[in-house]
Amino acid sequence: xxxxLEFKNITFAYGGNVxxxxxxxxxxxxxxxxCALLGQNGSGKSTVLLLANGLLKPNExxxxxxxxxxxxxxxNLKELRKKTGLFFQNADEMLISPTVLxxxxxxxxxxxxxxxxxxxxxxxxxxxxxxxxxxxxxxxHLSLGEKRRVALAGIMGLEPELLLLDEPTTYLDPSQTEVFxxxxxxxxxxxATVVMSTHDLDLAYEWADWIFVIENGQLIFEGTPDxxxxxxxxxxxxxxxxxxxxxxxxxFGAKNASKEEVLLLLKGLLEKKGDS
Length: 276
Ligand SMILES: Nc1ncnc2c1ncn2[C@@H]1O[C@H](COP(=O)(O)OP(=O)(O)OP(=O)(O)O)[C@@H](O)[C@H]1O
Ligand SMILES: [Mg+2]
What we know:
alpha/beta; six-stranded mixed β-sheet; 11 helices; 10 strands; 42% helix; binds adenosine-5'-triphosphate
């Protein structure tokens, strides 16, 4: 499998911590895949994403972009950050301009857009992410969910080659989660690789085509969602849970059914029960 970004024997400890957040951590992020990064609180998910964007520097080990080593020099890091877009777990850290419009413009200008191209892109992002009513609002007047939407729109609007999203759906309401998932699919279909950390196992199961599980700074599983969740004992032991859709598929013996087909089966069953 071709990897876009590879972590090879990475060890990283936050300043002052004796216990490393990642220990001899190796992973290959497969090109073009939708990857979910799972693991309990403190397992190392955010650390992986911060290293992947070059915001943290490994104490030991190497990172490779399409097989080429990444050097932690200013020029290389600038390149890496152009190709990757990171949505922080704490979205507040990402919003730096006084208003929504200025904040979105800032990211685009940094990415090299000017003049008409900048205006067109801004309009597109505002429309796609349904931010029309928020565009002139001061950032500090936004709700938590609104702030996260603006930060997400800013990152996703840049359409990076590798999209790194740290618990992006937290605080989004169901309709905004839909908007986000639709946009993420669009970006993925245009060729991007996505890595999303999440505690929402239903979302991970329905969305991802590849799953990584981390525990205590080490990779303990990688594979398809079905390969993970079929191993119920392992999943529960690792503090995760079995997604509802997976449970229903097992119940109906419909391993390859889509969500819609499973819902139809369930509806049929309930109607039958109502008739009897
Ligand atoms: N800024 C920091 N300074 C010191 N230690 C940190 C810092 N950030 C994280 N850690 C520690 O590093 C380890 C990995 O943390 P990390 O934030 O990567 O976990 P996580 O899997 O993202 O957790 P969560 O699900 O809670 O977001 C934990 O032991 C955590 O306490
Ligand atoms: Mg985290």
